[in-house]
Amino acid sequence: MLGRTLREVSAALKQGQITPTELCQKCLSLIKKTKFLNAYITVSEEVALKQAEESEKRYKNGQPLGDLDGIPIAVKDNFSTSGIETTCASNMLKGYVPPYNATVVQKLLDQGALLMGKTNLDEFAMGSGSTDGVFGPVKNPWSYSKQYREKRKQNPHSKSGDSDWLITGGSSGGSAAAVSAFTCYAALGSDTGGSTRNPAAHCGLVGFKPSYGLVSRHGLIPLVNSMDVPGILTRCVDDAAMVLGVLAGHDPKDSTTVHDPINKPLVLSSLADVSKLCIGIPKEYLVPELSSEIQSLWSRAADLFESEGAKVIEVSLPHTSYSIVCYHVLCTSEVASNMARFDGLQYGHRCDIDVSTEAMYAATRREGFNDVVRGRILSGNFFLLKENYENYFVKAQKVRRLIANDFVNAFNSGVDVLLTPTTLSEAVPYLEFIKEDNRTRSAQDDIFTQPVNMAGLPAVSIPVALSNQGLPIGLQFIGRAFYDQQLLTVAKWFEKQVQFPVIQLQELMDDCSAILENEKLASVSLKQ
Amino acid sequence: MAAPVLRRGCRGRLWALACVDGGSCHGRGAPTGSPSNRIRGQSSVAQQPLHTAQKPRKGEHNWAAVVGLEIHAQISSNSKLFSGSQVRFSAPPNSLVSFFDASLPGTLPVLNRRCVEAAVMTGLALNCHINKKSLFDRKHYFYADLPAGYQITQQRLPIAVNGSLTYGVSAGKERGQVIPKTVRVKQIQLEQDSGKSLHDDLRSQTLIDLNRAEGQLRVDANISVHHPGEPLGVRTEVKNLNSIRFLAKAIDYEIQRQINELENGGEILNETRSFHEKLGCTVSMRDKEAKQDYRFMPEPNLPPLLLYDATSLPIGADPRQVIDIDQIRETLPELPSVTRERLVQQYGMLPEHSFTLLNEVGLLEFFQNVIKETRAEPKKVTSWVLNIFLGYLKQENLAVSESPVTPSALAELLDLLDSRTISSSAAKQVFEELWKREGKTPGQIVSEKQLELMQDRGALEQFCYSVMKDHPQVVMDVKKGNPRAINKLIGLVRKATLNRADPAVIKEILEKQLSS
């Protein structure tokens, strides 16, 4: 049951094959079993069981709230949850219990979803590995998969033991690990430069970043307000669409949400043929750092579309190479501003120093933030200084416009959807990953995902195949703004073609009988 | 300052500010007046920021002062600029604070429509150009009463620009002579207010009230002096002036201080100063931090504020979603300058009286209601409303709406006066009775107290005769040609009649009797 998709388990609940409480307890027990993954910062066991109980009553009365009623979900720990600690994986917010729910959380709860817990991340979502949070790094469940372990045994150079576990990618690595390890059916991430799509690619999941303005940010503790979007991590495209259907829409509490999205997504149709589609392949995304395996998969994916009758053309997004540096200026500037409220006065951490307010601010912020956050605050304040503003911030905004226009031009040339890699390589071992600092890693890892945030477009990472090492590889589809439904429809067709294998975690959970229906797991798949 | 004690869960409120930068003079206009005029003239600087000061010493340059005002005015709205929580005067501290007001992480600003409408209306009233697109910015600084670490304002592209306000200053030689002046308005911007800090020096604590500050008006004045024709001088900023009187005093003081400083070979520092209300002087605030860099950046959570007019209004637009400038223009009341002009024209009122009528809330309406119901001359009505009625109100510190005397009662009283049924001193007596709220009409009071003027000429003649008989010395004075002596006789007769006689009639009878 745990290995099923959201849609399948929703049907099972409706048919009474399983009750919400049973489902909740299975997930809770698996969360405990996989605690070493460090996917969750807070497990909201009592809340989830209470919600399950209420859901069960509704099912008994034949009045479930919707498709998500009784479905275990997890939420990244940078979404405010009423009565549940929300830390952003930072000392600064340890012990902070918000008095309100983020709009997206409330919408899920209104549908009867069960909140299993709050997932791990890089501190304040600043990172691409989920390694830089105060609660420690998240381990990629694929590190313990049969697929990866078997490949490793064949490699005489590989070390034995657990020391070479893999990162999940990030910053929504906790959410990705939670869904990937079957502890919930969907999870909320956030996506500012690729934070949902990157870990989705590394963990073999669908990672969807909606159009900016389609989904409310109210209650999402911001990284970069002008780029942040709540992201959705699921096991298949249909599940992502189902969750998006619940989350999308104008929120009076977020003035940047649109009133009339061009296409409010509901249920995806199955695309019978792709002959009317035009797929764009941005030539600037073919960079030397791209692993040959991913490059070849990318190319085969393009061939697949072409062989099925789609028009596949090369397009140019000429300002792509400026995106990361531009992002650095805009991101750190907004970070400097957004982090200003964390002063120890009203909530969160406060140091013991009380000789003056200024000294208290300084010490609180030194103790509360890690080096990455402090570094970005420092850079951002530098860029916003009166003498630097024109040279940095204003220029970066202009470059951002050029990058956004690149996409507009590509779509105006007749392209429906762009196809790109999501990451440069498959997930790397933690010990490998931390050889570079956070800034270098973020700059490298966000290269394919981050321009999309500059332009506010919808994008989705779809797991395509396993690498030679037995690790997932994802490809990214990018759509026009507010053409989220069209984008997901194309992604769904592609998902069906590639038949990505299900993670086999039996070695990890060999005494967890409930999920050891291996054959069943295998059949979870992407077929409906 | 010790660490503020506010912790999560405290509440407060927010208000909006409209900011008006006063225009400035660039050495235009010839300096006028005597040395004493330099200060005297500046005292009305609140209405006259373009005033020039003079250095009269022979052979030396004159001084010109330049004053610019930043006026923070609270918008009268039910809820705050960016949150749904209420605005209420003197609410308990931190009782009106939304999660946004407390800057809880993840909260977002939502612009209050009423505040935008008020800003547009203010812009129209001040002859501004209304920007159909305006933007919001963040202004950063760390202070305990600024919980987000930044303030949302409109620095780059404000809602209204380039306005002007024409007004009159009674400064001429003749009474009631009004000199027209114009002040330029640089911009009007919507701005979130910070919280209020309460410093407890005993406990070394600062308490924060996030209900936000409670003054209705706060002005920062930028002041510099220079010699006409030369570049502008270095300016100082006098912060947080909360009354027109203090504003005028502070500017006067600061201009004089700067002139003295420069004439004594000193220099003016570009600094912020505060006005010491008791000593009547400005003092340097000695900011601990050097130059503040507010690190302005666009507020990413508020899209550009778009306004429409009749020509640009999108077809089929939801009226709840759009703000129509033309529609707001239609709801604009008659502006004070127009009303004042009308009063002067219509009732032959002195311009200064028209100012007084408009400056007191409800007074104009009261005046107009009296006019409507009485036969008395407008000049008489003006005099009674501004002298007697307003005097009583001020003495008891009452608003017009709290007056015990209704416009109808005053109208009736003035009719009695107009028809010479009572004397003007009796009328004042009746007014005093009316003020006691005993529910009696002026007619009732007059008859109860027997205040009617004596209409019996024969009886009056008898009173005059007796008075003249009893005061031969005064009669002698009159006959010797002392013109004021007759007034004494009139007074004595009035007293004898218990103020019930018309002085004009007494005078006539006395003159007749004296000349006979």
From TrEMBL, chain A:
InterPro entries: Amidase, Amidase_dom, AS_sf, GatA. It is found in: Mitochondrion. Its main location: mitochondrion. One of its GO terms (biological process) is mitochondrial translation. Keywords: ATP-binding, Ligase, Mitochondrion, Nucleotide-binding, Protein biosynthesis. The active site is at residues 76, 171, 195. It catalyses: L-glutamyl-tRNA(Gln) + L-glutamine + ATP + H2O = L-glutaminyl-tRNA(Gln) + L-glutamate + ADP + phosphate + H(+). The keyword Transcription regulation does not apply. Residues 147-166 are annotated as: Disordered. Its EC number is 6.3.5.7. NCBIfam families: gatA. Allows the formation of correctly charged Gln-tRNA(Gln) through the transamidation of misacylated Glu-tRNA(Gln) in the mitochondria. The reaction takes place in the presence of glutamine and ATP through an activated gamma-phospho-Glu-tRNA(Gln). Subunit of the heterotrimeric GatCAB amidotransferase (AdT) complex, composed of A (QRSL1), B (GATB) and C (GATC) subunits. This is Glutamyl-tRNA(Gln) amidotransferase subunit A, mitochondrial. It comes from Sapajus apella (Brown-capped capuchin).
Automatic annotation (TrEMBL), chain B:
Signal peptide: none annotated. InterPro entries: Asn/Gln-tRNA_amidoTrfase_suB/E, Asn/Gln-tRNA_Trfase_suB/E_cat, Asn/Gln_amidotransferase, Asn/Gln_tRNA_amidoTrase-B-like, GatB, GatB_Yqey_C_2, Gln_synth/guanido_kin_cat_dom. Its EC number is 6.3.5.-. One of its GO terms (biological process) is glutaminyl-tRNAGln biosynthesis via transamidation. Residues 29-59 are annotated as: Disordered. GO terms for cellular component: glutamyl-tRNA(Gln) amidotransferase complex; mitochondrion. It is found in: Mitochondrion. Keywords: ATP-binding, Ligase, Mitochondrion, Nucleotide-binding, Protein biosynthesis, Transit peptide. Residues 365-514 form the Asn/Gln amidotransferase domain. It catalyses: L-glutamyl-tRNA(Gln) + L-glutamine + ATP + H2O = L-glutaminyl-tRNA(Gln) + L-glutamate + ADP + phosphate + H(+); L-aspartyl-tRNA(Asn) + L-glutamine + ATP + H2O = L-asparaginyl-tRNA(Asn) + L-glutamate + ADP + phosphate + 2 H(+). SMART domains: GatB_Yqey. Residues 33-51 have a biased composition (Polar residues). Transmembrane segments: none annotated. It holds the Pfam family GatB_N. The keyword Secreted does not apply. It is an enzyme of class 6 (ligase). It comes from the Eukaryota. GO terms for molecular function: ATP binding; glutaminyl-tRNA synthase (glutamine-hydrolyzing) activity. Allows the formation of correctly charged Gln-tRNA(Gln) through the transamidation of misacylated Glu-tRNA(Gln) in the mitochondria. The reaction takes place in the presence of glutamine and ATP through an activated gamma-phospho-Glu-tRNA(Gln). PANTHER family: GLUTAMYL-TRNA GLN AMIDOTRANSFERASE SUBUNIT B MITOCHONDRIAL AND PROKARYOTIC PET112-RELATED, GLUTAMYL-TRNA(GLN) AMIDOTRANSFERASE SUBUNIT B, MITOCHONDRIAL. Belongs to the GatB/GatE family. GatB subfamily. Subunit of the heterotrimeric GatCAB amidotransferase (AdT) complex, composed of A (QRSL1), B (GATB) and C (GATC) subunits. This is Glutamyl-tRNA(Gln) amidotransferase subunit B, mitochondrial. The lineage of its organism: Eukaryota, Metazoa, Chordata, Craniata, Vertebrata. The gene is GATB.
